[in-house]
Design goal:
By secondary structure, this protein is mainly alpha-helical. It is built from three helices and no strands. The chain is flat, with a radius of gyration of 17 Å. About 75% of the residues lie in helices and about 0% in strands. The longest helix has 26 residues. It has one domain.
Length: about 90
Amino acid sequence: MNTSQIYIAVSIAVLALIALLVLFRGKSRKENRLTPLAGLALGFVLAGIIFGDDRFIGYSLLGIGVTLAVIDIIRKSKSNSTVRLTN
């Protein structure tokens, strides 16, 4: 294994650990659960890291993952925001 493959393997392991922590800690708190769209975004980011040898495919998958994550953030913020009118 060369150096870049070691970095990729370590990155995947760290991201998988973070995903497991979010998954297990998120069950106790209902408002902070990982949505299906966020899980899909995480999957695309991980796939982009795994297939990073081919730059076009790797960057495309990373871009799709980031785009899905931003869409999920926007959807969550719209559903959580309430307009309050006070005098």
